[in-house]
Specification:
Chain A has no helices and twelve strands. Chain A is mainly β. Chain B is globular and about 35 Å long. The chains are: A mainly beta (about 120), B mainly beta (about 120).
Chain lengths: ~120, ~120
């Protein structure tokens, strides 16, 4: 069965610190997709990134970067020079395709608090 | 752009009461989903639909029913609410069934509906 583990339940940092959120997944699929979503205190879910299993290139978007390593089944997310606005719950998710339909399996989330 | 709209946003029920959550999307998406979010549990899939007139069970379907009579709407019903169904419910939609050449679909989520069952 597909599974996503976010071992860090809560992380607290001081503004301008770098922080890495860990995500480890399990799947038997050879083709799969990984996602990160952000849930700020307002509650909505915001899509951050999608990565397919054939593309192990790291990605950088401003202060955000993602490190995908198939060898360790990990898809970690790093925020550089964190800001208070980065405070949120972050979810890692894995796509699961069965019988032609697509579903996302989410990790339990990591709550990040960035203190001024 | 409305995207995915959920109503109501908040509701308090007594045990045994029934209610329906409505999800509406204006993006012509084929796929629609209902998730529930509980503290420390992440999001768990309740039911989903791959198109008008179809529904399927997700990870935690017990106690819920759904209907997709129109492509743009996906209703989640609780026939006899229980305190264990106190949660935040999220509806989501995505464009096509299965994967496209560009990869797995990105879900667009509604703002959530907070349900409390006393």
């Amino acid at each position: 069965a597909q599974k996503v583990t976010q071992a860090q339940t809560e992380i607290s940092v001081v503004e301008k610190e770098d922080v890495t959120l860990d995500c480890v997944y399990e799947t038997r699929d050879t083709t799969y997709y990984l996602f990160w979503y952000k849930q700020p205190p307002s509650g909505e879910l915001v899509f951050l990134i999608r990565r397919n299993s054939f593309d192990e290139q790291n990605e950088i978007s401003g202060r955000y970067s993602w490190n995908f390593q198939k060898s360790t089944s990990s898809f970690n997310f790093t925020i550089t020079a964190s800001q208070v606005v980065d405070s949120a719950v972050y979810f890692c998710a894995l796509s699961e395709e069965k019988g032609g339909s697509e579903k996302l399996v989410f990790g339990k989330g990591t709550k990040l608090t960035v203190n001024p | 752009n409305a995207g995915v709209t959920q109503t109501p946003k908040f509701r308090v029920l007594k045990t045994g009461q029934s209610m329906t959550l409505l999800c509406a999307q204006d993006m012509n998406h084929e796929y629609m989903y209902w998730y529930r979010q509980d503290p420390g549990m992440g999001l768990r899939l309740i039911h989903y639909s791959v198109g008008e007139g179809t529904t399927a069970k997700g990870e935690v379907p017990d106690g819920y029913n759904v209907s997709r009579l129109k492509k743009q709407n996906f209703l989640l019903g609780l026939e006899s609410a229980a305190p264990s169904q106190t949660s935040v419910y999220f509806c989501a939609s995505s464009y096509t069934p299965g994967r496209t050449s560009s990869g797995a679909n990105v879900l667009t989520f509604g703002a959530g509906s907070r349900l409390t069952v006393l």
